[in-house]
Amino acid sequence: MATPDFIRELRATAGHQLLWLPGVSAIVFDDDGRVLLGRRADTGRWSIIGGIGEPGEQPARTAVREVLEETAVRCVPERVVLVQALEPMRYPNGDACQFMDITFRCRAVGGEARVNDEESLDVRWFPLDALPDLEDFALLRIKQALEDGPAWFDPTVSP
């Protein structure tokens, strides 16, 4: 994942300390009910499309931008699927961060799926009954995007 300029600027003064960052994921479906996935350059694994919002950028706009930048597919957000604070993580360079992920269900409205930046090795549409090996992170979001219920959140709230 390419590091946005605003994070590089923060790191210049914050060092490796934990940063709380806005993350957005997009579950994009086409008219045939297939889901758009990208094979990540950093891990080599298939996953859903996502990224970091820029300062002042609305989360739905971030989803649309990230999908276009990474896959050349134009999409329209339909609803919020999930809101979840992820576990803190540390990158190999020592940088620590924690993401607040907002996941959107999106509908493809144009473009041809292809690798469109350096973050992906491959981009493809997958039928739901023929998904590649995916981490639980992606599987939960796809599952929730298929349901018409309210947005999912972690119901374990302590007083």
Features:
159 residues, alpha+beta, 8 strands, globular
Mind telling me the C-alpha Rg? 16 Å
Q: What's the overall average pLDDT, rounded?
A: 94
Helix percent band? 10-25%
SSE pattern: HEEEEHEEEEH
Q: SS-based structural class?
A: alpha+beta
Structural account:
- There is one protein chain.
- The chain is of the alpha+beta class and 159 residues long.
- 21% of the residues lie in helices and 37% in strands.
- The protein is built from three helices and eight strands.
- The chain starts with a helix and ends in a 13-residue tail after the last helix.
Show the helix and strand layout.
Layout: H1 5-14, E1 19-29, E2 35-40, E3 46-47, E4 49-52, H2 59-71, E5 74-85, E6 89-90, E7 96-110, E8 120-126, H3 136-146
Parallel strand pairs: 1-7
Antiparallel strand pairs: 1-4, 2-3, 2-8, 5-7, 6-7
Quick take:
The chain has three helices and eight strands, in the order αββββαββββα. It is α+β, with helices and mostly antiparallel strands and 159 residues long.
